[in-house]
Structures are given as structure tokens and as C-alpha cells.
TrEMBL record:
An MF annotation (GO) of this entry: metallopeptidase activity
Record's protein name: Protein MtfA
Gene3D superfamilies: Collagenase (Catalytic Domain) (3.40.390.10), Glucose-regulated metallo-peptidase M90, N-terminal domain (1.10.472.150)
GO cellular component: cytosol
Pfam families referenced in this protein's UniProt entry, alphabetically: Peptidase_M90 (PF06167)
Organism (species): Pirellulimonas nuda
Length: 265
């Protein structure tokens, strides 16, 4: 019954006219947006309409959550779900907290933060650009959202990173293995990702330069998040240098960004 009411709300949000400023925000703050076709841009804007209303947005440390903040973050989320024919509106993501800059969470929050099985929790006092909470909100630094979204040559994007953790957690775990479509896809994922993860760990230990951010060597969950950033930020380089990894990510996200983004990397 509750799904019926939510679907009715979504239809209402999608029927609203798009404010003229929204595409301008995305042109300025999400470099991929200008390379999308008209239909793809429409899908990103539709998701922005839904997330702007359905998610509870909270500004922290004095930040005002404006339409620009909502639309920019929702636009990055929209890139991740352009592939599936059935729209995904991040049904299980209820709230997003936005800080003006990197932040240090209260020590009391450390027990609630997203902690991955068999891995040490992050230092509660360490300054952060973003984080995902188990069954709770995604937290982001607005300064870093803009930094990552405006540069076509950065392999990082804090929104993509934290929402990759969201996808990873949809099956209840946080292990770098998001919900797969079928046993064969899951086996192929483990085969490729295990190999690529070990490859990154070895490179990080020996100080070798890598395309993938070596933060991904922390654990398998961070590897998936880092690989997701690279998939959408530097798809040509990822396909060229890590073809099998690009292939399994393309299968999961049901799209190939290298086919519609210019080879800026």
C-alpha cells in the first residue's frame, strides 16, 4: 500500500516543469551532463525532481541546501542509473547530509557509522569528504562535490563513491559485491574484482602509480567505490588499462560511459 502512495507522489514530481536553472546547474557542476543525449539528460533531470522531494536533505555547519545543492548531487546519482530501462529512484536512501567542506564527525557517531565486516572502523576524528551510514544517510562535503563534478580529468567523485557504498549495501552486506543479476554474473564479478583488488593492493604496497585511487586497496568495499568513480570519471582509461574490470562494472550498471563520454582521460 505504501508503495502505491510513493508511486503516486513520483508521478506528481515527474509532471512538474523543470526550472530553467536546473540544467544550468548541471552544465556547470557535472561535466558529464553536457555530453549526454537529450533523452539521457531528461532522465537525469527526472531523477533530480524525485530525489529533491523524496529525500530528506539536511545542511550542516551552516550550509543552506539550495536547489543547486540538491540538483547537483542528484545529477551525479542520475549518471549511475542511466543504464537500466526501469528507473531506479534510490528508494532505500532516505536522507543526505551536506557539509560546506570536509568535516569531523562527533565521536559518538562512530558506533553508528557504516562499518564493514572484518575491517577496522574509520577513525572518528579523521576529516572526511563523505561517508555512507548503514541503513541511514549519505554524508557529503559540498566543496568536494563541486571539485569532483567540475573536472573531467579527476578520477574521483565523492557522490559516486558514497552511492557505490549504497548500492553495495542493498543486499545487506558491505563486501564490495553489490547485488548481482544471476549466479554466473556473481562468479564473474568475484573472479575479476578479486584479481584487480589484489593487483591494486600490490601496487599500493610497492608505491607504484595506479589509475585507480590506491584508497581502494583498503578493502573490497572501498575498491568497488573507487572503481565506480573511475568508471564514470575516466571510462576510456579504465577500459584501456583494466578491460575486464570495466566489463563487469558495465554489466552491473548496464551502461558503457566510454561510449558516450569523450576521451578526456
Amino acid at each position: 500500500m505504501f508503495g502505491f502512495f510513493r508511486n503516486r507522489r513520483i508521478r506528481r514530481w515527474l509532471a512538474e516543469p523543470t526550472p530553467d536553472a536546473w540544467p544550468q546547474y548541471l552544465e556547470a557542476n557535472l561535466w558529464q551532463f553536457r555530453h549526454l543525449g537529450v533523452a539521457q539528460q531528461r532522465r537525469v533531470l527526472d531523477l533530480a525532481h524525485v530525489l529533491a522531494h523524496e529525500i530528506h536533505w539536511t545542511g550542516c555547519n551552516g550550509l543552506e541546501v539550495t536547489d543547486e545543492v540538491r540538483v547537483t548531487i542528484a545529477g551525479a546519482a542520475g549518471l549511475m542509473v542511466l543504464g537500466p530501462s526501469e528507473p531506479y529512484y534510490f528508494d532505500r536512501l532516505k536522507s543526505i547530509l551536506v557539509y560546506p567542506d570536509a568535516y569531523r564527525p562527533a565521536a559518538s557517531a562512530s558506533a553508528t557509522l557504516l562499518e564493514m565486516d572484518d575491517f577496522e572502523p574509520v577513525d572518528a576524528y579523521e576529516a572526511r569528504e563523505g561517508e555512507a551510514w548503514r541503513g541511514g544517510p549519505v554524508v557529503l562535503s559540498w566543496k568536494h562535490v563541486l571539485r569532483d563534478g567540475r573536472s573531467a580529468r579527476r578520477g574521483r567523485h565523492v557522490v559516486l563513491h558514497e552511492l557505490a557504498h549504497h548500492f553495495d549495501s542493498l543486499d545487506g552486506g558491505m563486501d564490495g559485491i553489490p547485488p548481482m543479476f544471476g549466479a554466473s554474473a556473481a562468479r564473474r564479478w568475484r573472479e575479476v574484482v578479486d584479481h584487480e583488488y589484489r593487483r591494486l593492493v600490490s601496487a599500493a604496497r610497492h608505491g607504484r602509480p595506479t589509475l585507480l585511487d590506491d584508497y581502494g586497496a583498503e578493502n573490497e568495499a572501498e575498491f568497488f567505490a573507487v572503481a565506480t568513480e573511475c568508471f564514470f570519471q575516466q571510462p576510456h582509461a579504465l577500459r584501456r588499462r583494466h578491460g575486464e574490470l570495466y566489463g563487469v562494472l558495465s554489466g552491473f550498471f548496464q551502461q558503457s560511459p566510454a561510449d558516450w563520454l569523450p576521451a578526456a582521460d
